[in-house]
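Protein data:
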Amino acid sequence: MSTELRSPQDTERWLCAGLCLIRHEDLTADALTSAVPWLLATLAESPALPPPAFIADLGRLVAGVPLAPSAPVPDTQPRLRVAVRAYDDHVLARLAAEPHLEAVSAALARLPETLRPRGVAFLVARVLTRMGFTAGSPVSPALARRVLERPPTELLQAGYTALRESGSSAALDRLTEGYEALASAARRAHVLLGDAESFTLENLEHLQGKAQRMALEQAVEAAEALSRTLPPKLRARPVSTAPLPMVLEDEAAFPQGGFSSVSNVGSLENLVTSELVYMEDEPNLDLFDVRYVEGELLYYTRDESISVRRRRVITFVLPPDLVDARVKDAGVRWQRVVVSMGLLLCLVRRLSLWLGSEELHFRAVFLHAHDGSAPWRLNAASASCCCASGAPVARRRSSPPPRSTRS
């Protein structure tokens, strides 16, 4: 049976003791100050918090700050000591080895300074969701703000005092259960970070609400599921005729440039510098003049060949009645409109991989209706879709507007 934090004093001790377990060499007030905005942003994201040190450790990890090898858990708490060691092995070690950590860190670093706490809170929520962690501790936002607004040195002193208590207390028991649940959930999780996290962080500045963010996350998940059903490479097809430049397949040509060989014909700007040894200071004719007249001087020649590659413009047209696809089919995790956005993102990724040797341009065109029967209500979905695919947006009318008549 899980322990509950029944009193505000237990919640305060739980917060302070958890902050003292942050992976930081010689934990100081400055390190604690940087973690407070992450905690408050995570509390705004979800009312149930994991152990506070997990939020700070994840924020420091994605920020590129090295973590300390261990946390100072006193010998008076043997169960907590074992739980923290399991947390090190199964949570922090896996996060540090995640292949998507570099992309997530780069996306977070590109965010404005004011949005980074929100980005860390989003990452905490996503990692906990991937792990299936449900053992969060409910914390009153007002109480948490009142505690975290205290001076950092006072928070550290209260936390170390709570950790040195002999015997069991509700705060330390709840903290221990949180670490045990994190380690157990991480052992069962397949991955802790993925493309959905990096894509959402890259576009977090443009996602105004949680609905748009959730739509983007689900679209990326649908794209990953669709990508697993496609082959990694296209099968080579025999070419019966030479490719002809067309409207959507014109050729892009550009010179290679650079010196490629040496010849006896050229300009003085391209003269081989070793030919200057034949020049003498006397005004009489020298060997350089003779070689110049005979055409025996050596010149560098440029590579004037042309590199040709094909250019493709791929346009995705989405009709205005796509707004009616906000329904779920039996056995499908996402709505039809989310699957459509995932398909768009999947096609952009796969075509970029399959046709990587060609110059590709992707466009997304959203049609408008003018008869009033299908009003345009897909703004959030279209914005999320274009953020995910990176395709420019174009809006077109599905039918020409009626002309106004004058009497």
Summary: The chain has a mean pLDDT of 79.
